Amino acid sequence: MDLLEGRSAIITGAAQGIGLAIARVFAGAGARLVIADIDEQAAKDAAEELVAGGATVLPVRCDVTDEDGVEAMVAACAAEFGSVDVLVNNAGITRDATLRKMTAEQFRQVMDVHLFGTWLGMKYASLKMREQGNGSIVNISSISGKVGLVGQTNYSAAKAGIVGMTKAGAKELAHLGVRVNAIQPGLVRTAMTEALRPDIWAEKLAGVPMGRAAEPEEVGRVALFLASDLSSYMTGTVLEVTGGRHM
Q1: Contact call for residues 110 and 33 (beta carbons, < 8 A)
Q2: Which contacts (CB < 8 Å, 24+ apart) does range 159-167 have?
Q3: pLDDT tens track for 146-177
Q4: Do residues 230 and 221 lie in contact, with contact meaning Cβ atoms separated by under 8 Å?
Q5: Distance, CA of 204 to CA of 197 (rounded, Å)
Q6: Half-sphere exposure of 84 (CA within 13 A, CB side)
Q7: Average pLDDT over all residues of the chain
Q8: Which of 62, 98, 188, 243 has its CA at 20 to 30 Å from residue 41's CA atom?
Q9: Rounded Cα–Cα distance for residues 24 and 18 (Å)
């Protein structure tokens, strides 16, 4: 299904994990891609893989906490492809620690990447989208932002903030033809989660009614739905991709 044929999409944090999976799904749907990541070489490697599969890709180094860098990323997409049709704010980090042990720097780092980074992406992408009269922004939150997880006061706060930001942005931009939605993934099989101790992994799986973790591409397909015209009458929504966990 060429749901994104002729459209350009920026994906942040796209060199690995969920971001790369979203890029693969979007490439399969015909999108022209900007693969943005703070790791420039990793972005180039991911782009090479996608180009080998037939995709049109521009790798861009971008620190999402750097305003000039985010503005340049959006400008590069517009210059290369002529439009900015989709933005997926996916870049993220974790700095897990309990309240007693978490440092102020660890708290600020997570808030900067997730909240400030998402806000910058929304700001500069929407400036271009409003000129076009259309566009779709997909923000990656987390189920942690709904229920709160131990050792993640920073991450849970940031991911909950993304939900509020999504709804406020959706209200501001709807009359301009720009939609803003969010995804809250649950347990997803990535290199990070597969590194968990077996007992912790089993404990997390026990809380998933479907009895398994998501594959990254399953999050990617939901992002495709929100990016495409299949969701043309949806804005300000938050879709949980959790296998029923924390429903």
Answers
A1: no
A2: 159/114, 159/184, 161/111, 161/114, 161/115, 162/89, 162/114, 162/115, 162/118, 163/238, 165/115, 165/118, 165/119, 165/122, 165/139, 166/139, 166/141, 166/236, 166/238, 167/236
A3: 999 999 999 999 999 999 999 999 999 999 99
A4: no
A5: 11
A6: 29
A7: 97
A8: 188
A9: 10
Helix (H, G, I), strand (E, B) or coil at 178: strand
pLDDT band at 181 (very low <50, low <70, confident <90, very high): very high
Q: Which residues are catalytic?
A: 155
pLDDT value for 197: 85
**How wide is the angle at C-alpha 39 spanned by C-alphas 38 and 43, nearest 5°?**
105
Residue recorded with tokens 């799904």: 25
Percent of the chain with pLDDT over 70: 100
Does CATH number 3.40.50.720 belong to domain 8-241? yes
Three-state secondary-structure class, residue 64: coil
- Residue 226 carries which side chain, given as an amino acid letter? L
pTM summary value: 0.97
d(CA 16, CA 4): 21
Do the Cβ atoms of 118 and 169 come closer than 8 Å? no
Give domain limits for the chain. 8-241
Q: In residues, how long is the chain?
A: 247
SS percent in the chain: helix, strand, coil, step 5? 50, 15, 30
Residue 112 DSSP code: I
Query: In whole angstroms, what is the distance from residue 104 CA to residue 81 CA?
Result: 41
Please, which pLDDT band fits residue 145 given cuts at 50, 70 and 90? Answer: very high
